[in-house]
């Protein structure tokens, strides 16, 4: 199999680099200064094994590869807000022997939230979900750090429509040999909904900073309570905290120190967008469909998007001000 990493940022580059280290065939897809750095100097990936430079093929799109191979596996690692453009571009690519990537090739969705699988299923015949537990940091173009130990990360995998098959088990085996735990599960969305609860705090971290604070924890708890009420109203199952703790305990320990998460990193890099529409916004959507008030998640989604659109630096808002906005929204609900 050849792995094509569509969106070789912090998560994509870490997975691509680790797969390449164990001899797997890997292609990185990136844009702009990051692509230029990867081509010129290789991917500089730091893990607990040290820093290694991986000199891998780098493309900005499928046209640079020509016909795709029948054994290609597409790993979609762009943010959810960029998924449609990537899925359309790669889905139309022709595969040797006939047909398109959307018709013939598997695509694995590595995004936070649950929307990317839905977007992919509208376009691709073979869609798999991945629940990613892999704290990693994009340091600068061409340079990524992923310092968890003893494993680099944990990746739950399964068919987006439920169940598993030989293809995803083969991918899981490659990931297991490359420093990840990669359990294949029958209902991967159950794990992704569980992770979504924690990701509701991404907007808090992005707007008020990654430093721990009891007021931040309290606001996150309010957002999670809204989400659980929406899940219950919608009949959505999710992995319990006990299951998640058991799955991760002692496997992906991080070094001490404050680290910015994915939304914080998006703001720090000035990408102009964050995933809040598909994290907090997912809860707002469920709440509106099932009659559950979600004022805290509405506030967090709105605040994070303002930061992204206006180019505000991450952490520029006080938690006091953000909580006050949530309180005002709750009073109106």
Please name the defining characteristics of this protein.
333 residues; alpha/beta; eight-stranded mixed sheet; four-stranded mixed sheet; 14 helices; 14 strands; globular
Give a quick precis of the structure.
By secondary structure, this protein is an alpha/beta fold. It is built from 14 helices and 14 strands.
Task: Walk me through what this model shows.
It is built from 14 helices and 14 strands. It is globular, with a radius of gyration of 19 Å. The strands form 3 sheets. An 8-stranded mixed β-sheet has the order 5-2-1-6-7-8-12-13, sandwiched between helices. Strands 4-3-10-9 form a 4-stranded mixed β-sheet. It has a two-stranded antiparallel ribbon with strand order 11-14. The chain starts with a strand and ends with a helix. Helix 5 (115-121) links the parallel strand 7 and strand 8 (126-133). It has helices spanning 10-21, 32-41, 83-91, 101-104, 115-121, 166-177, 188-199, 202-208, 214-234, 241-248, 262-269, 280-290, 295-310, 319-332, and strands at residues 2-6, 25-29, 43-47, 50-54, 58-59, 72-76, 106-109, 126-133, 137-140, 143-145, 149-150, 153-159, 180-181, 252-253. Helix 8 (202-208) packs across helix 11 (262-269), helix 8 crosses helix 13 and helix 9 crosses helix 12.
């Amino acid at each position: 199999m050849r792995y094509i990493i569509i969106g070789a940022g912090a998560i994509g580059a870490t997975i691509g680099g680790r797969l390449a280290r164990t001899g797997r065939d890997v292609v990185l897809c990136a844009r702009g200064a990051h692509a230029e750095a990867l081509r010129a100097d290789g991917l500089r990936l730091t893990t607990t094994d040290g820093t290694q430079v991986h000199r891998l093929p780098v493309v900005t799109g499928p046209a640079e590869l020509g016909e795709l191979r029948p054994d290609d596996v597409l790993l979609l690692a762009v943010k959810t807000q960029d998924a449609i453009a990537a899925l359309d571009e790669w889905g139309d690519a022709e595969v040797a022997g006939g047909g398109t990537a959307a018709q013939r090739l598997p695509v694995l969705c590595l995004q936070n939230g649950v929307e990317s699988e839905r977007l992919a299923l509208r376009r691709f015949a073979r869609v798999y979900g991945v629940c990613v537990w892999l704290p990693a940091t994009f340091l600068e173009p061409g340079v990524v750090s992923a310092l968890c130990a003893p494993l680099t990360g944990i990746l739950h995998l399964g068919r987006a429509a439920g169940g598993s098959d030989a293809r995803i088990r083969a991918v899981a085996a490659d990931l297991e040999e490359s420093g990840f735990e990669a359990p294949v599960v029958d209902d991967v969305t159950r794990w992704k909904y569980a992770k979504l609860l924690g990701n509701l705090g991404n907007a808090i971290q992005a707007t008020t900073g990654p430093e721990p604070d009891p007021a931040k924890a309290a606001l996150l708890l309010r957002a999670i309570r809204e989400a659980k009420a929406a899940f219950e109203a919608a009949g959505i199952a999710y992995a319990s905290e006990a299951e998640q703790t058991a799955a991760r305990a002692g496997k992906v320990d991080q070094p001490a120190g404050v680290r910015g998460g994915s939304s914080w990193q998006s703001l720090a890099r000035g990408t102009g967008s964050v995933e809040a529409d598909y994290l907090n916004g997912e809860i707002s959507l469920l709440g509106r469909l099932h009659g559950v008030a979600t004022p805290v998640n509405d506030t967090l989604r709105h605040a994070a998007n303002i930061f992204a659109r206006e180019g505000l630096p991450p952490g520029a808002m006080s938690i006091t001000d953000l909580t006050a906005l949530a309180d005002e929204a709750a009073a109106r609900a």
